[in-house]
Specification:
about 160 residues, two-stranded parallel ribbon, DNA-binding
DNA sequence: AATACAGAATCCA
DNA sequence: TGGATTCTGTATT
């Protein structure tokens, strides 16, 4: 996987890609924190890391991070390192449109496991592709925001800028 | 083997 | 209105 780290309006963002597809997006306050998050998340998957950069993907991700608009041509891979349950959750999250939200319960129903809403929360926290897989659009069924792996402030900012 | 989580429905006071 | 109880998948201890 080709990994690079860039400054952005949320601090720093780590971008990982492989064979032309986006594999990882991590946030952090500085380069160290980004890389630590990345290592922790991918510890179980034996992946080679190179510092080569896929400029096309980096450009697409940086634009998405800064504007919230994701280039439809961006190829994303959800199938590396997650359990079956997590993969289903991420697939469901990816279909949430900008400006709209779903509850953890909604996601659970969507993946045919209506009682696993609590586990859905855990799976969201394991999302390897920040912002592009819009786990910030998953909120509590009572209307409150719920938690966020990279800090509730970022979740609030992301939701606020998408309000139609 | 037990606990802790980015949640939610239900029961009971 | 608010606390305890139960449910679920994973990681951590």
């Amino acid at each position: 996987m080709e990994v690079s780290i860039h400054p952005c309006s949320f601090g720093h963002v780590l971008i990982g890609s492989e064979t032309g597809r986006l594999m990882a997006v991590e946030l952090g306050n500085d380069v160290d924190e980004c890389y630590r998050n990345f290592i922790n998340r991918w510890a179980k998957v034996n992946k080679e890391v190179s510092s080569r950069t896929d400029h096309r993907i980096v450009d697409q991700v940086l634009q998405a991070v800064e504007t919230g608009v994701v280039d439809p041509a961006l190829q994303v891979s959800l199938y590396a390192g997650g359990t079956w349950f997590q993969t289903k959750v991420w697939e469901a999250i990816k279909t949430i449109q900008p400006g709209s939200t779903m509850s953890y319960k909604d996601i659970a129903v969507e993946i045919q496991r209506p009682d696993s809403f609590r586990a859905v929360g855990t799976a969201c926290g394991a999302n390897p592709i920040a912002i592009i897989v819009p786990c910030h659009r998953v909120v509590r069924s009572d209307g409150s925001e719920g938690g966020y792996r990279w800090g509730p402030e970022i979740k609030r900012k992301l939701l606020a800028r998408e309000q139609i």
